[in-house]
Write a structure and sequence with these properties.
The chain has 6 helices and 11 strands. With 202 residues, the protein is an alpha/beta fold. The chain has 2 domains: 101 residues, ATPase, nucleotide binding domain (Nucleotidyltransferase, domain 5); 79 residues. The longest helix is centred in the middle third of the chain and has 18 residues. The chain is globular, with a radius of gyration of 17 Å. It starts with a strand and ends in a 15-residue tail after the last helix. The mean pLDDT is 91.
């Protein structure tokens, strides 16, 4: 179980870094788009220095793999891999579909997480058997929404979209951005630690 970690979220929206140390969270909102490796590295070093973080083999780095800003995600992954290689720390990734769905995961019900990017809607479906298994993201066919019985989670900016209005509103939940929800992904073994790469949707 991951206890202490650095969390990096640089997808171009809600760009934030966070530390989880001794069950306490410290968050720093990044006010500017990350366009340079040096800027992100400095923000991370400052946050760690501010909270006197001691890096050891139990410390991990978690990074959002997307979808989102091409440059922001690439830079976040490069910095994460740099920390992983130089400090010999464990490295994991999560994605925005999972982070949004986290608030429903403890209900142990099937979930569909929907995101809009590049003017298209995509979804990842979480099926609960003994554990959750989430599908790779797929482009959303509006007719599919009329057939679902799962709980649907969407970011707030989609709540008035016409495609969402076709869903039974009692099944729709609004996701609030909260990096602390990474804890739920950890508890449910939903982090990726192999072949970590950007999640780009076209």
């Amino acid at each position: 179980m991951i206890k202490d970690c650095l969390i990096i979220n640089c997808t171009g929206k809600n760009d934030t870094i966070a530390l989880k140390i001794n069950n306490k969270f410290f968050l720093k909102k990044l006010q500017t788009n990350i366009i340079k490796y040096e800027a992100l590295s400095i923000f991370i070093l400052d946050l760690m220095k501010e909270h006197d973080v001691e890096i050891n083999q139990k410390f991990a780095v978690l990074v959002n793999s997307g979808p989102g800003s091409f440059s922001g995600i690439r830079i976040a992954l490069a910095v994460t891999k740099g920390i992983h290689l130089t400090k010999k720390l464990n490295m994991y990734s999560y994605n925005t579909f999972l982070l949004n769905a986290a608030t429903l995961i403890r209900k142990k019900e099937n979930i569909i997480s929907i995101i809009k990017t590049n003017n298209f809607y995509y979804f990842s479906e979480g099926v609960m058997n003994k554990n959750y298994n989430f599908t790779l993201p797929k482009k959303l066919d509006p007719s599919y929404l009329k057939t679902i019985n799962s709980q649907v989670i969407i970011p707030e900016e989609l709540k008035n979209d016409e495609i969402i209005n076709s869903i039974d509103r009692t099944k729709v939940y609004i996701a609030e951005f909260n990096l602390k929800n990474v804890d739920i992904l950890i508890e449910n073994n939903l982090l990726e630690n192999k072949l970590i790469k950007p999640l780009y949707l076209s």
